[in-house]
């Protein structure tokens, strides 16, 4: 297929691109007053709170009062590397392995997955699609401080979080071939992107909080627009043994610690990307309501469970964006959650 | 052909709603014939078939209905295998709910087809359900597939990866990783004949077919080029049909 990963022409192009991106970063108001910093935690949609500091938002932007020296175009959307440029060597093998894990996680990362989801369920187009938490935009925002665990996370540690929470599994140890492959794949997609810059299309575009969101209204939206694929009970649908439409709640879905269990994250994902092929078709209110509906159901326990539901809510879910530990539709959420993590092998 | 419908005629009949504009006047005479054909078939069926609506789907499939619907097998084959050259779809092994919905749509006009409209209307709802159950229970094995080609490879790329830059999700994200279909809404595509698949995608594009929930298929079909339609149809024809819903 392709030859050397970095031929001279590519190197030159990368240098020019980075130079342009730097100029753009200097002169455009990346961090407008009041705007949240580039929340690395939101890169893959994890928590409502933004970290106190950010790797993006170049400091120069704040001091750049003078007009730009050169004409500045709008920042072009970043386009990840095409598949054809995966090198035919050992690194290329790692990239391809990473992509295969991303597409079929349980099959290719056995033992680390405890539900019926795949990475690509929430990161559409194999982690390539803008506004669907693309991998290339997340990769360049790490290392970063995350309020979720109150320390600086490497990208690999961030990936561990995906397995622990979103996949309701267990984190592969650092250095595990699964993590190495996924990081290789993300690096490959991000090749040529400026480091530390919040790229257009990063994360899921945040939705303005409505006056209210409502489980009951969400149930109606769900029945009309979602159940046909995800099933009336949110259980998803299979073709033979393969999960085609992911389960949205219940024992085979993401657990209470996942980013998608945060209503604002789910609403943002849904608005941009659902129903499949018709992203943007729901109103903002419908997206909020249906997010509240699906995140108002039981799902596997938060693996950080702290003795009681009440204490766990106080410690990890003390926000209107989490229904954990509250009573919704007559159910105290978290009180009868299925256990977190992969089922013990029989 | 054993059913008396020559292949070239059948091809035009099935594709007429989708492509008559492109084909222009050449198809006009045949299309006029097509409009008469269902009535002729029904008349023939009325004359030759005893009333056997209660006998279940098999008798309708093989001998027509008391209400005048002709035998399904006359176009869809003795085993429900379809006629690839004419674009008559394979019915064997498709989901029962899906088949029932299609027959109901033909009768109601949600799915417009000059041949199937009158035939489905001649069946009672119970007969539609029975004949759907009959075909759902047949094995899909033995469906005809064709050797692969370059267009198959391009179609496979679209089916597996989609074209997200144009808002086209992968076909398999709804029809299953092996094209085996999902439930009663997302039909099996594996081993279905390419002419039929292409005709349907074109029918969605031009509104002849509008019986998909939420316009899910229409939204995607309208973003496809004619070439992509041909390629992806060719790809699914080469896949081996399986039974998704069959529980062992």
TrEMBL record, chain A:
Domain Cytochrome c: 213-298
Keyword Ribonucleoprotein on entry: no
InterPro entries hit by this protein: Cyt_c-like_dom, Cyt_c-like_dom_sf, Cytochrome_c-type_DH
UniProt keywords, alphabetically: Heme, Iron, Metal-binding
Pfam families: Cytochrome_CBB3 (PF13442)
Sequence segments annotated as region (Disordered): 34-90
Species this protein is from: Alsobacter soli
Gene Ontology terms, MF aspect: electron transfer activity; heme binding; metal ion binding
PANTHER family from the UniProt entry: BLL4482 PROTEIN-RELATED, CYTOCHROME C DOMAIN-CONTAINING PROTEIN
Biased composition (Low complexity): 34-82
Superkingdom of source: Bacteria
Species lineage: Bacteria, Pseudomonadati, Pseudomonadota, Alphaproteobacteria, Hyphomicrobiales
Protein name as catalogued: Cytochrome C
The keyword Mitochondrion belongs to this UniProt entry's keyword annotation: no
